[in-house]
Amino acid sequence: MGPWRCLLLLPLLAPAGRAQQQQFMEYVERRLTLLEERISQWHDQSSRYSTELRDFKNQVLGMLEAAEKEREAMRAEAESAAVRMDRLEREVDYLETQNPAPPCVEVDETLMDKQVATAKQRKNEKYTKLTDCSDTIASVRAMKILKRFGSASGLWTKDTAGSSERIYVFDGTANDTVYVFPRMREFTLFSATRKAARVKLPYPWVGTGHLVYDGHLYYIRQQGQAFQVIKFNLANKTVVDSSVFPAEEQIPVFGLNPSTYIEVSADEEGLWAVYATKEDEKNMCLAKLDPGSLDIEQMWDTPCPRENAEGAFVVCGALHVVYNTRPPSRARVQCVFDVSGTLAPEDAALVYFPKRYGSHASLKYSPHERQLYAWDDGYQIIYRMEMKKKLEV
């Protein structure tokens, strides 16, 4: 082909080359655009991942810091607990050196049989008085309603053998915590128990027949079919002694208070226990207690019936039983039994209590104050008694 022919083909080949070049450039641009989109997507994902990683790092650092603080707090508490434990061990060691080990309070059937036999030998013997007390109750001189506290049944009292101003409150017929108010004012003015100390007993009580006497709490514990008198030291919070009450097949002592099986009372002569058994289920029995050893010194069958009885107390060696009716009415002392024989039941004055809310759940006589601490349907009442000589009645 000659040169003049090549010149003729050049105009024809030029558009085809430009078209290919244009397609190539478009292809390159599409690839670059796709690459830029991927780079931008990667950048966005990388930025998001970086932010999440930074937040996670900050969160982990915060958790580690909190965990470190908790570890330090737990270490401080453990060190404090170790110090308190060491102190407690030293105090326990000291108490063990100062106080004898608490007695075993499990029921010993052999010991119980022996106590029953010994008590029966002394039953209904003549009582020789320890004091020259010859007073008896003539009437209720005054009544004061303090407040309403706790449940319908319970008891409240002072130490019946001392001059302490503390008020001891037993709420309910089955519990293990005694409230102790420092004075009558704190008990009267405050409805809550924030002003009261709490004494946790090693065993729960039953009924409302308990007593505070000479710095000790004498309370009743039921274990199976047997009943125990527990002597608890209120100062060092330990059980000093205990005794299975030497009576067989006991039944509730008061017809209107079925939860009370033993009523522990105090007078000028010391401690007494009022109880009842199936042997003579109609009438009550009375026993003289030794406050030191809890032994039964003497026992008596009384002519005072259990039916419609709501409470009892002892004054100068004479048992006074308070009666009511099942629909609550006016309570009255209707049976008096004098263990010394100086006051015949028919010569005793019939003492009436003012009609209040229901029936008495407990009546605690204070010998040195000559008044009764009563619990009537949740109300705490003081009865001041008018006394006379027995020969004048």
From TrEMBL:
<keyword id="KW-0217">Developmental protein</keyword>
<protein>
    <submittedName>
        <fullName>OLFL3 protein</fullName>
    </submittedName>
</protein>
<keyword id="KW-0964">Secreted</keyword>
<dbReference type="Pfam" id="PF02191">
    <property type="entry name" value="OLF"/>
</dbReference>
<keyword id="KW-1015">Disulfide bond</keyword>
<dbReference type="InterPro" id="IPR003112">
    <property type="entry name" value="Olfac-like_dom"/>
</dbReference>
<feature type="domain" description="Olfactomedin-like">
    <location>
        <begin position="132"/>
        <end position="389"/>
    </location>
</feature>
<dbReference type="InterPro" id="IPR050605">
    <property type="entry name" value="Olfactomedin-like_domain"/>
</dbReference>
<keyword id="KW-0325">Glycoprotein</keyword>
<feature type="coiled-coil region">
    <location>
        <begin position="57"/>
        <end position="98"/>
    </location>
</feature>
<comment type="similarity">
    <text>Belongs to the OLFML3 family.</text>
</comment>
<keyword id="KW-0175">Coiled coil</keyword>
<keyword id="KW-0732">Signal</keyword>
<dbReference type="GO" id="GO:0005615">
    <property type="term" value="C:extracellular space"/>
</dbReference>
<dbReference type="GO" id="GO:0007165">
    <property type="term" value="P:signal transduction"/>
</dbReference>
<feature type="signal peptide">
    <location>
        <begin position="1"/>
        <end position="19"/>
    </location>
</feature>
